[in-house]
Amino acid sequence: MQAELGYTSTQLTEDAVAGAVTRREWLFVITTALIVLAITSLPYLYGYWSAPPDKQFMGVVYNIPDHMQYFSWFREFSESNLSANKLTPEPNAPVFFNLLWWGLARIGGALGIGYAGMYQLLRWVATILFLLLVYRMLSWFFADRLRRMTAFLLILFGAGFGWVLILMKYTITKGELIWPLDVYVAEPNTFFSILGSPHFVAAALYMFVFDLVLRGHAKGQLRYAVYAGLFALFMGWQHAYDLLIVYGVIGAYALLVWLRDRKPPMYLVWSGLIIGAISVWPALYSVLLTSLDPLWEQVLAQFANAGVYTPPLYRLPVLLGLPFLLALFTALRRNPFKLRGVSNNDLFVRGWFWISFVLIYLPVDYQIHMLNGWQVPIAILATQGIFAYITPALARWFRADKTPTPRLAITTAAAIILFSALTNIYLLGWRFLDLSRHDYPFYLYRDEVAALRWLAANAASEDVVLSALQVGQYMPAETGAHAFLAHWAQTVDYYGKETAVARFFDAATAEQERLGIVADFGVDYIVYGPAERALGAYRLDNSKHFRQLFSSGGVGVYAPVSE
């Protein structure tokens, strides 16, 4: 059977799991995960504990718009299996599904925990599972503990040269941060994702498919392809675009094995077909949703509003840092065109590394998400380079006997890990600085929260609430009603809605135009507080066209007066 699948007994022996993981190593992984989770919890604790008496910390420390989108789904899924888009005023049917937020909503409902609490549960569970999976995978590529631990720590703490850009901001660029995305992109940065974007950590679990493929290939058993397909299906219902990474990496691996052996790798061919047939359905659903439903088609078209794309090729070292440079050096040093005699495990890492250059530049607006997980093959190759090339070179330069010693290897690895973590040290400190301002978007006035709670109790699910963006982005998650303006992609005609809100609160706007905005979009309520007053001097309490329904301090909720 193994011969029929294109895999010989010699290769089977060669590519068995490289090194069994000891109990002490698993303890190291768990302990490290808990320490990192404790450290990354500090900004959240600071946000809650330092909130002024008139402000409320809303439970998220980074990327409020996208998180409020997820939390809107959380609220909808707590009552239904499908979600409508509540981040836009246009009526729309509940046709959207996401397994991650559906599951969190159902668990949260059973436990009586809201979105902020379930978000923390996601952070902790996803982080522990991901780090355990990563270490399990590293046992395929490294036989000894030191190399496994080095690669693990590079995956966990490695980041780019963003700290250099920060130093430049306060010196030669006079307060301007050039290439800010090269500092703040979370997808290829495990630590930053754990800190502020744990859904990326959860999404990166897709690589368990690779572990199953490698395991099945080593044993020549197609049942592992079935397991891999089922897991890919499970992950696809959470992030369908990650299936592009799964298919691309497996395809690249199969191609390299084919080129090395000069015959089709039938096991991988059959595995790919099985995995694809089982898992393609979430991708098909996403394509149909964004092509057949007019509203979701417009949502997809607005992804370009964020202006977030993979940095150009020449800036990848800035984003990915020293580990990337070491990985690139290692991959080129080993002659990527020489495949004869290369083991399956090494071919897999090469395929994953090189195909990612294609995936991250796919001509789609979500191309930057293809960076998620690339830090794993980067760290594997970087670790190989540290021990195969860097440490021996240092020994030749600094030791009389020119012999690499374990102490030199450990010191070199530790120095590279520490240097690679500098940007993450900044990112952690930057969260405290941002939160110390006690301002939007991380905090709302308690009177605004009171207004949201009143709307949650009194507004119907189909009602539309107009407010400034600072409050509107919280509206669906907190009230279940439609927000007039909430999200750069999910709000249809985002910039048009943004202009309409500014016009509404501008005292110079003609009353007829203001009433036209209300009528055109079926606005049922208007929130009027500090964020809205900052947009313009229009006074709703002085208008005969609006009546106040709720008031708390400086925040009121108004409704149009029927003519």
Poorly predicted runs: 1-17
Q: Please report the distance between the alpha carbons of the first and last residues.
A: 80 Å
Total strand segments: 7
What's the tally of helices? Answer: 27
CA radius of gyration: 26 Å
In the sheet with the most strands, the strands line up as 4-3-5-7-6
Please estimate the helix content. Answer: 55-70%
Based on helices, strands and strand pairing, what is the structural class? mainly alpha
| Quaternary status | single chain
Query: How many domains comprise the coordinates?
Result: 2
Q: Overall mean pLDDT score?
A: 93
Major beta-sheet overview: 5 strands, mixed
Strand content: 5-15%
Explain what the structure shows.
With 563 residues, this protein is mostly helical. It has 2 domains: 346 residues, no CATH class; 118 residues, Rossmann fold. A 5-stranded mixed beta sheet has the order 4-3-5-7-6. Strand 6 and strand 7 form a beta hairpin. Helix 13 crosses helix 18. The radius of gyration is 26 Å and the shape is globular. It starts with 8 loop residues before the first helix and ends with a strand. The N terminus is likely disordered.
Topology at a glance:
Layout: H1 9-14, H2 23-49, E1 55-57, H3 64-77, H4 99-111, H5 115-141, H6 145-157, H7 162-169, H8 181-184, H9 190-196, H10 198-203, H11 208-219, H12 223-236, H13 242-261, H14 266-279, H15 281-292, H16 294-301, H17 316-333, H18 344-359, H19 375-398, H20 406-420, H21 422-435, E2 443-445, H22 446-458, E3 464-466, H23 469-472, H24 475-479, E4 482-483, H25 494-505, H26 511-520, E5 523-528, H27 530-533, E6 546-552, E7 555-560
Parallel strand pairs: 3-4, 3-5
Antiparallel strand pairs: 1-2, 5-7, 6-7
